[in-house]
Amino acid sequence: MSDGTPPPLDPTLTAMIERMVDARVDARLAGFSAQVEEALARLRAQEGPQRDQASILVFSGDFDRLISAFIIATGAVAMGIEVSMYFTFWGLVALKKQTTFAGKTIEEKMLSAMLPGGPANTGTSKMNMLGMGPIMFKRVMAQNNVETLPGLIKLAQDLGVKLIACRMAMGVMGIKDEELIDGVQYGGVATYLGDAIESKITLFI
Amino acid sequence: MSDGTPPPLDPTLTAMIERMVDARVDARLAGFSAQVEEALARLRAQEGPQRDQASILVFSGDFDRLISAFIIATGAVAMGIEVSMYFTFWGLVALKKQTTFAGKTIEEKMLSAMLPGGPANTGTSKMNMLGMGPIMFKRVMAQNNVETLPGLIKLAQDLGVKLIACRMAMGVMGIKDEELIDGVQYGGVATYLGDAIESKITLFI
Amino acid sequence: MSDGTPPPLDPTLTAMIERMVDARVDARLAGFSAQVEEALARLRAQEGPQRDQASILVFSGDFDRLISAFIIATGAVAMGIEVSMYFTFWGLVALKKQTTFAGKTIEEKMLSAMLPGGPANTGTSKMNMLGMGPIMFKRVMAQNNVETLPGLIKLAQDLGVKLIACRMAMGVMGIKDEELIDGVQYGGVATYLGDAIESKITLFI
Q1: What is A53-204's CATH number, 3.20.20.220, 3.40.1260.10, 3.40.50.720, 3.40.190.10?
Q2: Of B20, B171, B189, the CB nearest to C144
């Protein structure tokens, strides 16, 4: 006993005490186990719905608002934020690569003729001045080394921004699948909401 | 001992060991207990403020933006998301059932005469063309089986979407309580913010 | 034994049992310890990114939208919510104190001449009627005891709302630092996104 260590117990007594200790510890821990499991289950459930994700609903087809939407989207994805953009109504113009007239109703043909042919033909929300606004903007943007709108859209696609075209709005605006750029996904309001509810940033532009 | 089970301990010794075990287990668990309680308290506090709730501030009175706002709202509530819509400035038109002039100041009467009489009379944000835009939109929406704007507003109410009219904006726009549909709640910016801070989706339309 | 308390154990036996109990309890708790630590670490990590913070991106320079943005911002800060406002494109007018022309390119001078000189000179998004809209709005707002736009901007600054001017948009709109009010911060899309990702309320106005 010079080292202060007690001598070993009789093995039979040891086994009996071990069993008793384990049973009592298990009983005491049972409640904790449930609490800890609950805490972890809640945490895992919470972490799913709130990742670093941004959801941008693009309603507007104005040149300046589209520039703003794509600068936010490409900036976010560059910061490691997953970005989902949902294009509805006038915003669909950002996804257009061409305008077709075949197989459209009279109303759809009228809408197609009046809507801009694609993102390069959009007007500004203010000071459009029969198209002078966008021209001046593009000049000053080039002087300031800001990417063009078609360039920003291409960049967004290359960086993995999810581009979703609203099926309902495509119907209302008379826009067909073959008029949109490749790589676009199609969805409805549930698709949008599924992304938005998981996003920390939700914008309507 | 043929079954490997140790014989029962002396009852007095058993009682003594049990007391000792319990005391030591309790001491060891005391720290854990506090940690688990803290974790659960934090989780419960967190879960309050971030339910599956969406808050839509409707500033615009444009036909196409209102359509978009109510499609999002009704879609969300159908997915089990609680939805609160707060109507301010031009957006108040969505809640109008009639226009009255009695008891209004000159400015209020002028504003009332110039504002649309209700959601069925709103114009589009683009291509309104003296009212042709909404007519064409309504035709194409009907062809695409999209609900009308008054129909969507009624549906939102039936589904339990909370509709709140901004008191301050009602004052500024000269709109009286009797001009709004039944079932509308009234509130100020604090009402809006109270809902928005608890929402995962916050939109300004 | 009249009080039911068992007599003390032999000290050597007690020490042996204590060591055994502690070892077994520690082994049983080892797994819990890791779980509880994980839960608390996750909670602490979660609480950082989601404070009560609101992020308002002000894109529009319309009088009525600016009024709405600043009423939300000042209301939020009064409720204990940290507010960050990021001004881009037309929204920059809210931060202007004067217009200068010296040292600007032709395009910048043209833009400066056409943009409102400051928040007091902004028009409404609807019913502007060559400036009659804002005048009527201001009269009715005064009758309803609503603060003026310059008053709301001053109040926001006094209440500690963070006002950030978008450097890129300043370049595109030809706006120089000396044209903006004091106390404004300058930043880019990463500044905006850094605030927005930590915010429970994110609006694009």
Answers
A1: 3.40.1260.10
A2: B171
